[in-house]
């Protein structure tokens, strides 16, 4: 799940949201790709991430899916991810990981 582009550009380990997106519906005639909040929470827990960054980096679809998943995660369990930086011109947002739970409320990680 490590994202070599982010590591190359920043010198920091990072995970790629693209690795957990379900692309099957995107390529079928059934609908669009999707990312469920549980998968995002699992990725953050497994990687022990301190921050989550969303930016298009060449694929706006993935960034939009990530924004939707973060929004759902924040609705279901407020305070898990705190927005600490946003840039409209680059459509980028960075969230500080406070505590990540599954949508059902089971604790996955504490910061």
Structural commentary:
The structure is a single chain. The chain is α+β, with helices and mostly antiparallel strands and 111 residues long. It contains 4 helices and 5 strands, in the order H-H-H-E-H-E-E-E-E. The strands form 2 sheets. Strands 1-3-2 form a 3-stranded antiparallel beta sheet, with helices on one face. It is globular, with a radius of gyration of 14 Å.
Q: Descriptors for this entry?
A:
single chain; 111 residues; alpha+beta; two-stranded antiparallel sheet
Percent of residues in β-strands? 15-25%
Q: Indicate the percent of residues in helices.
A: 25-40%
Tell me, rounded to a whole number, the average pLDDT: 76
Number of helices: 4
Q: What assembly state would you assign to the polypeptide chains in this entry? A: single chain
> Structurally, how many domains make up the residues?
1
Strand order of the largest sheet: 1-3-2
Low-confidence runs (pLDDT<50, min 5 residues)? none
Q: Write down the Rg.
A: 14 Å
What is the element layout, followed by pairings?
Blueprint: H1 4-10, H2 24-27, H3 37-47, E1 51-54, H4 60-76, E2 81-87, E3 92-97, E4 99-101, E5 107-110
Antiparallel strand pairs: 1-3, 2-3, 4-5
Helix pairs in contact: 3-4
